UniProtKB/TrEMBL annotation:
Substrate binds at residues 20, 121, 166, 303, 410, 417-418. Belongs to the glycosyl hydrolase 1 family. Gene3D superfamilies: Glycosidases (3.20.20.80). One of its GO terms (cellular component) is cytosol. This is Beta-glucosidase. Keywords: Carbohydrate metabolism, Cellulose degradation, Glycosidase, Hydrolase, Polysaccharide degradation. The active site is at residues 167, 363. InterPro entries: GH (IPR017853), GH_1_N_CS (IPR033132), Glyco_hydro_1 (IPR001360), Glyco_hydro_1_beta-glucosidase (IPR017736). One of its GO terms (molecular function) is beta-glucosidase activity.
């Protein structure tokens, strides 16, 4: 029997995102992001919910840091709101916005918590959407690099763990729809699939240019990472033929071969480009060199996977649909696939040929139908089940020698869950939105015990 013990230097953390928790959307000269506009548009979010107040973290960050400290969390991944730093997306830096993050980081450091800052978690400036269409323009990459310079030159004395962009697929391929309104902000209708792929290519350029900007601006040595939620392809059985099929299928599933692959290898998947044909993005000379920056770490946001099996006809693999009775959590896409952690890590190391790249699970968690009991408790054994099995999968990867260095639970708090508003709860701490009271759930106490014992309990 294994004790599921983790290495002594394993980083246990929690993660959040600016628009989902901060609120205070007009405070200290912050201007609207595309998510402010999107959530204020009737019919775009469930119940018309917006992030205007969210968890009011902007005003309550000291309490939230204390909450982490009480649970033993020593690493905190958060994002910085572009429009707090550059309200118009470019131009004059808003020092009052910078000062909020300076106060937050100082508070973290006072409590012995290491900050891990993500520069972009979907909340792009509305001003740049109005000016040139955000990610439809190559200008966005340059403006993002300038924003990175503004942040890192001011906060780089306090923050040494930087992440450029979170989940390119979600704000490009879900945010831009071909001749239909897409489900995610900014909800931009485009004419061709090629236009969608162009937005993710521009986001990759932004990542590459930001890597260069971070290293140039940081006053001290720092770590630079990309965060992606690529979808692992899991073999239906771990036989040589099914494993080979899963590795072959990885390149063409969703956007794997067009986002994580060029970022980590410097080339788009040839199999994907063959599939796309005329819908492939325009790639200018030098683009791939900019995109393929050396990384100090890679952040893997892990929720679910797809099962694959080998077949005796072209292309040699088959993606399998989930049966109607397959277990899932409280989101339509959140199928219970804990092997996705192990296989996602293995695909980075083996399928993409990056055996020495340190990996962090930068998000992992689930929405469940939390119920507040008469005793003012949330006994979320379903979330504990989910987290326990995914962490066991992470442990397997470490046991087999893959370079997994840390884990950030998603999320520290219940929060604004994008188009789902406040209806879906991912936090290990319950938030009463009427009173802003925080209440640790059973999963928070369980996670604290994992941290205390440095193993999966």
């Amino acid at each position: 029997m294994t004790s599921y013990q983790f290495p002594s230097d394993f980083a246990w953390g929690a993660a959040t995102a600016a628009y989902q928790i901060e609120g205070a959307v007009t405070e200290a000269d912050r201007k609207p992001s595309v998510w402010d506009t999107f959530s204020a548009t009737p019919g775009r979010t469930l119940n018309g919910d917006t992030g205007a107040i969210a968890c009011d973290h902007y005003h309550r960050y000291k309490d939230d840091v204390q909450l982490m400290a009480d649970l033993g969390i020593r690493h905190y991944r958060f994002s910085i709101a572009w429009t707090r730093i550059l309200p118009d997306g470019r131009g004059t830096v808003n020092e009052a916005g910078v000062d909020f993050y300076r106060r937050l980081v100082d508070c973290l450091l006072e409590h012995g918590i290491t900050p891990h800052a993500t520069l972009f978690h979907w909340d792009s400036p509305q001003a740049l959407e109005d000016l040139y269409g955000s990610w439809r323009s190559r200008e966005m990459a340059k403006d993002f690099a300038d924003y990175a310079t503004a942040v890192v030159s001011r906060l780089g004395d306090r923050i040494t763990h930087w992440m450029t962009i979170n989940e390119i697929h979600c704000f490009t391929h879900i945010g831009y729809g071909v001749n239909q309104v897409p489900p995610h902000a900014p909800g931009t209708v485009v004419n061709r699939l090629k236009d969608v792929w162009q937005t993710s290519h521009h986001a990759l350029l932004a990542h590459g240019m930001a890597c260069q900007a971070i290293r140039a601006a940081s006053p001290v040595p720092c770590s630079v990472a990309l965060v992606d939620n690529f979808v692992p392809t899991v073999p239906i059985a771990e036989s040589p033929q099914h494993i080979a099929a899963a590795q072959q299928a990885f390149h063409v599933h969703t956007t794997n071969g067009g986002i994580i692959e060029p970022a980590l290898t410097g080339a788009y998947s040839t199999a994907l480009l063959d599939q796309l044909g005329e819908d492939a993005p325009e790639i200018q000379e030098g683009d791939l060199k900019i995109i393929h920056q050396p990384l100090d770490a890679f952040g893997f946001n892990n929720y679910f996977a797809v099962y694959v099996r080998a077949i005796d006809q072209a292309p040699g693999y088959q993606f399998l649909e989930f049966p109607i009775s397959y277990p899932k959590l409280h989101m339509p896409w959140l199928f219970f696939t804990p092997d996705s952690t192990y296989w996602g890590i293995r695909h980075i190391s083996e399928t993409l040929g990056q055996p020495d790249l340190p990996i962090y699970i930068t998000e992992n968690g689930c929405a469940v139908e939390d119920v507040l009991t008469a005793n003012n408790e949330v006994i979320d054994t379903d979330r504990i089940l989910f987290l326990r099995h995914y962490l066991r999968s992470a442990h397997r990867a470490i046991q087999e020698g893959y370079p997994l260095k840390g884990y950030f639970v998603w999320s520290l708090l219940d929060n604004f869950e994008w188009a789902w508003g406040y209806d879906r709860r991912f936090g290990i701490n319950y938030v009463d939105y009427a009173t802003q009271q925080r209440l640790p759930k059973a999963s928070a106490h369980w996670y604290a015990e994992c941290i205390r014992q440095n193993r999966v309990v």
